[in-house]
Amino acid sequence: MRTDEVGTTGKGLLRVEGLTAGHGKTLILEGVSFTVPAGGRLALLGRNGVGKTTTLATLVGQTTRHAGTIALDGVELGSLASSARAAAGLGYVPQTRDVFKSLTVEENLVTGLKGRPRSALEEAYALFPRLGERRRNGGGELSGGEQQMLSVARALLGKPTALLLDEPLEGLAPVICDQLMEALSRLDMTVVLVEQQVDRALDFADSVVFLDRGRVVHAGPAHQAKNDAALLERHLGVALAA
Ligand SMILES: Nc1ncnc2c1ncn2[C@@H]1O[C@H](COP(=O)(O)OP(=O)(O)OP(=O)(O)O)[C@@H](O)[C@H]1O
């Protein structure tokens, strides 16, 4: 168990098997399988357009699923509506940062409470003190980093057992990336992270899956991938700085 934790322990086993999905009749994913143990952290990596966002969107029920299963703690989610998947414990922070610009920070957070008491908002402010300082500001007045914190905090207020993060660091200054990754590293829950900043993603994750053209082309421990320049070059076209 991690110390200084936020979230749920012992739950969040995510099993994805043979997922074939896309947009309408257009197939993007073909037979994608991976398992993340409860409390595990998976980095889902690959070049642009290989299907990373589509994978997360399929898990939360926003694409057309043609085959395959998605099970969270043994509960099959594949045929449930998105709202029921969220209720079953799947949290999602989309690439678009779901922030309501016309609502204040606090009002945005309230939309994530899902019936929990208002006092739970303190969890969000404890994780991201900056949101506490900005609680009366409008969502549209926030910096990119603050919007991302708000988007993550709102997803966490729903008490997910597995959190899906789509490129949370996109467009953020390095110091804000540091802060966000530090906060995420304190979460004690299953996480699937899609991220272009490969070095940060591999430092955060225990395991990694590389996608190429909608298929899993490599799966293994994150630390091994980090030290395998040929693997990174092959699947991402990049080499990490030593
Ligand atoms: N709504 C859509 N309708 C049809 N095709 C789509 C739609 N959204 C994405 N695609 C296509 O699906 C493929 C996979 O896209 P996806 O966004 O999942 O990739 P990605 O790996 O997340 O890429 P990136 O790193 O650029 O975000 C791409 O070829 C993309 O053009």
UniProtKB/TrEMBL annotation:
PROSITE patterns: ABC_TRANSPORTER_1, ABC_TRANSPORTER_2. Residues 14-238 form the ABC transporter domain. It comes from the Bacteria. Coiled coil: none annotated. It holds the Pfam family ABC_tran. Transmembrane segments: none annotated. The keyword Nucleus does not apply. One of its GO terms (biological process) is L-amino acid transport. Keywords: Amino-acid transport, ATP-binding, Nucleotide-binding, Transport. GO terms for molecular function: ATP binding; ATP hydrolysis activity; branched-chain amino acid transmembrane transporter activity. The keyword Transport applies. Belongs to the ABC transporter superfamily. This is ABC transporter ATP-binding protein. It comes from Azospirillum doebereinerae.
